[in-house]
Design brief:
5-stranded mixed sheet; Ubiquitin-like (UB roll); two-stranded antiparallel sheet; alpha+beta
């Protein structure tokens, strides 16, 4: 399947510009797979974050066609279908012959380069709530600290919640008006 990526690129001290890349991909490829191919085959200077590729860490958070998402989670086929559905609901819009994906850095954070943003404000806010979610300040029993199955499930979900929180914070309009 032929696809086009319009990547919003920027250096910290320059205005953003759009760079277009065309790829032949499988519908099951993730957006991150496509960005990797662009970097390896077309433009070694394209900069973005990636780490676990398992939708856990949140490092590949970015805006994909206007919505905040994880590039390692979203696949080309589903995103192309979503774009077709959106085009079908707009009477003046026509479906493009080649699906075009617009990739931009996360919002509400300063851009360092291309799709990489300065996440210091996020880390500062996360550290501020740590005393309320950490067990360090709590009185723990002298014997082994056991997790019930219900608690064990909750703890494994915490990494996923963390990456979801990162994506959500970057898309919050109120944060752009008054940063926390």
């Amino acid at each position: 399947m032929q696809v086009r990526f319009q990547v919003i690129r920027q250096n910290a001290d320059t205005p953003p510009w759009v760079q277009t890349y065309d790829l032949e991909v499988d519908p099951g490829n993730t957006i991150l797979d496509c960005l990797n191919r662009i970097k390896w085959e077309q433009d070694g200077g394209l900069t973005y974050r990636k780490n676990c590729r398992n939708t856990i860490c949140g490092s590949c958070s970015m805006r994909i066609n206007g919505r905040s998402a994880l590039a390692c989670k979203e696949n080309v086929g589903n995103e192309a279908a979503r774009l077709q559905t959106i085009a079908a609901t707009r009477p003046s819009a026509t479906a493009e012959a080649v699906p075009t994906f617009t990739i931009a850095p996360m919002g509400n954070m300063p851009v360092l380069r291309d799709l990489v943003v300065d996440m210091q404000s996020f880390w500062d806010n996360l550290q501020a709530v740590d005393p309320y979610v950490s067990t360090e300040a709590r009185q723990l029993p002298e014997r082994e600290f056991c997790s019930l199955p219900k608690n064990a499930i909750a703890s494994t979900k915490s990494a996923t919640v963390f990456s979801a929180e990162l994506v959500t914070r970057s898309a919050t309009p109120a944060r752009s008006i008054q940063p926390l």
